[in-house]
Amino acid sequence: MTDSGRLTVIAGPMFSGKSEELMRRVRRATIAGVDVLVVSHSLDTRSDISTITSHTGVNIPAVPLGDVASLAEAARQKDYDLIAIDEAQFFGPDLVPAVDELLRRGIDVIVEGLCVTFDGQPFEPLPSFMAVAEDVLRLTAVCTVCGKDAVFHQRLEQTESPLGSDSAKIAQAPAATLAATTIDASHIGGLDTYVARCRQHFTGAGHET
Ligand code: ADP
Ligand code: MG
């Protein structure tokens, strides 16, 4: 009987270094001769979709996939030792049973993604993965207002400077047009769209200070 694989979760808000940490682990595994499949989501169009790219611009090759079925199919193509998934929240809750299946087949899996939405709510499937993982790395970013640990990120209006302190200008998108858990391009962005915030300076929906 094959030993089960290990599940490692790397979770946090935007800018917390999740992709950097995933890339570091993938590089180490590659040096060790581990057969790795690196998966990105085809919705993540911030850069070449055949790469995982960090906010610092560093990247590694990845296979862009659009859904859980394509991931399961890609995982069957070769005898992989490790499957590393970037921006796992894009795959939605169906990713949980799909990853469980990989683990049962003896494949180690690293799931990396946002565990919190831009309005400060748990963002599945990361919280579910955190509950059942052998290892969880919970990262924080740096609050753009005070420099403390940021557990949140929030959307920024075009007119606001990322360092600006005018919380009234933080975008409060109408719920009908922009659900924080919608699996779409609203979760793709960088310094021009989102900012990292600590608990005190987070002013996302329902958390006005
Ligand atoms: P994630 O995948 O979690 O969004 P990345 O790994 O792509 O994060 O990028 C992390 C890098 O982003 C940091 O090493 C740093 O250079 C840069 N960065 C920009 N803004 C911030 C911030 N507010 N807090 C922390 N890092 C930031
Ligand atoms: Mg990332």
TrEMBL record:
<protein>
    <recommendedName>
        <fullName>Thymidine kinase</fullName>
        <ecNumber>2.7.1.21</ecNumber>
    </recommendedName>
</protein>
<dbReference type="GO" id="GO:0005737">
    <property type="term" value="C:cytoplasm"/>
</dbReference>
<dbReference type="GO" id="GO:0004797">
    <property type="term" value="F:thymidine kinase activity"/>
</dbReference>
<comment type="similarity">
    <text>Belongs to the thymidine kinase family.</text>
</comment>
<keyword id="KW-0963">Cytoplasm</keyword>
<dbReference type="GO" id="GO:0046104">
    <property type="term" value="P:thymidine metabolic process"/>
</dbReference>
<feature type="binding site">
    <location>
        <begin position="86"/>
        <end position="89"/>
    </location>
    <ligand>
        <name>ATP</name>
    </ligand>
</feature>
<feature type="binding site">
    <location>
        <position position="194"/>
    </location>
    <ligand>
        <name>substrate</name>
    </ligand>
</feature>
<feature type="binding site">
    <location>
        <position position="146"/>
    </location>
    <ligand>
        <name>Zn(2+)</name>
    </ligand>
</feature>
<keyword id="KW-0067">ATP-binding</keyword>
<keyword id="KW-0237">DNA synthesis</keyword>
<comment type="subunit">
    <text>Homotetramer.</text>
</comment>
<dbReference type="InterPro" id="IPR001267">
    <property type="entry name" value="Thymidine_kinase"/>
</dbReference>
<feature type="binding site">
    <location>
        <position position="201"/>
    </location>
    <ligand>
        <name>Zn(2+)</name>
    </ligand>
</feature>
<dbReference type="InterPro" id="IPR020633">
    <property type="entry name" value="Thymidine_kinase_CS"/>
</dbReference>
<feature type="binding site">
    <location>
        <position position="198"/>
    </location>
    <ligand>
        <name>Zn(2+)</name>
    </ligand>
</feature>
<dbReference type="Pfam" id="PF00265">
    <property type="entry name" value="TK"/>
</dbReference>
<feature type="binding site">
    <location>
        <position position="143"/>
    </location>
    <ligand>
        <name>Zn(2+)</name>
    </ligand>
</feature>
<keyword id="KW-0808">Transferase</keyword>
<dbReference type="InterPro" id="IPR027417">
    <property type="entry name" value="P-loop_NTPase"/>
</dbReference>
<keyword id="KW-0479">Metal-binding</keyword>
<dbReference type="GO" id="GO:0071897">
    <property type="term" value="P:DNA biosynthetic process"/>
</dbReference>
<keyword id="KW-0862">Zinc</keyword>
<dbReference type="GO" id="GO:0008270">
    <property type="term" value="F:zinc ion binding"/>
</dbReference>
<keyword id="KW-0418">Kinase</keyword>
<dbReference type="GO" id="GO:0005524">
    <property type="term" value="F:ATP binding"/>
</dbReference>
<feature type="active site" description="Proton acceptor">
    <location>
        <position position="87"/>
    </location>
</feature>
<feature type="binding site">
    <location>
        <begin position="12"/>
        <end position="19"/>
    </location>
    <ligand>
        <name>ATP</name>
    </ligand>
</feature>
<keyword id="KW-0547">Nucleotide-binding</keyword>
